[in-house]
Amino acid sequence: MKRTFKFLMRPTVKQAAALAMMLEDHRELYNAALAERRDAYQMAGVTVRYGGQSAQLKEIRACDEDQARWSFSSQQATLCRLDKAFVAFFRRARVGERPGYPRFKAGWFDTVEWPKDGDGCRWDSQPDSPTTRVRLQGVGHVKVHRHRPVAGRVKTVSVKREGRRWYVVLSCDDVPAMPLPATGAVVGVDLGVASLATTSDGRHYGNPRFLAKASGKLAAAQREVARKKLRSTRRKKAVSKVAGLHGKVRRQRLDLAHKTALDLVRDYDLVAVEDLRVRNMTRRAAPKPDPDRPGQFLSNGQAAKSGLNRSILDAGWGAFVNVLRAKAESAGRVIVEVDAPHTSQRCAARGRVAAENRVVQARFCCVACGHRDHADVNGAINILRAGLARQADAQAA
Hints:
Blueprint: E1 3-10, H1 13-44, H2 50-55, H3 57-63, H4 65-68, H5 72-94, E2 111-114, E3 121-124, E4 132-136, E5 140-145, E6 153-162, E7 165-173, E8 186-191, E9 195-199, E10 204-206, H6 210-213, H7 215-227, H8 233-267, E11 270-275, H9 278-281, E12 288-289, E13 297-298, H10 302-315, H11 317-331, E14 334-339, E15 363-365, E16 372-374, H12 375-396
Parallel strand pairs: 8-11, 11-14
Antiparallel strand pairs: 1-5, 1-7, 2-6, 3-4, 4-5, 6-7, 8-9, 9-10, 12-13, 15-16
Helix pairs in contact: 1-5, 7-8, 8-11
């Protein structure tokens, strides 16, 4: 299996300055390569590719001392990152999606990657050593807070900046599985806003709404950013504070996802979940032109939908399902994703589908047979049945 391990780095003041300079030089390399591609196509109709730009690195390093002090392989990875952005741009353009031309990086270029451990970097992990360090060319040996052992073979090493924190990210191959003993239990899971997850046997996992709780502090911090002079030191500190608050919310949300997924994986052999399209669910409502007033629009309910969109994104359904998949794969459990439509409107007793069955968020009452239950529990039961049917079809095939 492939797994990613993320650890907090503890650089010295000089090392932190060197890490920031490394990010800045790689950002300049990325922007220069993007400008070359754009200008070559606009002026001469020539397409510049990764191979040609990678071949220029030796000349760039020979005449630029700032670029020469960093790892050659990490600079190749930065050029490859740009190439992947263009590949994704052309893929989206071909299928009719919104293309999204690659943008020049400003302050959000926060990751540098080394494609191979030992080429410009070295993960010096010793299980019996009280301290762990990572060696980076041009930076030195940086202390790492390794809070858990690293399994498998380290393939790539990345350094990432999140606010004022620095992290090292290890991508490992050949990570051994750790199967759990069978329990003989199966469950369906309904994802929601009031509760993050509700199981078919009536368990509810709460949704603390971390972003909503932090909204007051975030609003105050963002107002401070607006008051500061552009490109000033105080504005940078204010922006860093906003990033720190968002980072805390992200870590809290991910911690909840890990704990909830681990609880499910330990107790059940098969977990059925909805195959939700969160991006489509949180898309803005389509505008409604006013036929009587050209250039004007009718109300489309976007104001009310914006609140629901924030609640859905705050719950972090996508992150939770991704964590659940990874833990299930490691534990030898089965995850079955089923189609989401009508699972909340279908009666778990008779199977009748009607929008009137769920008139409020928490209560389900079938208009045909009178079956009553918690709405999320009723939906989780339908999800479990659909998951077992899909699993049986897959095994029969």
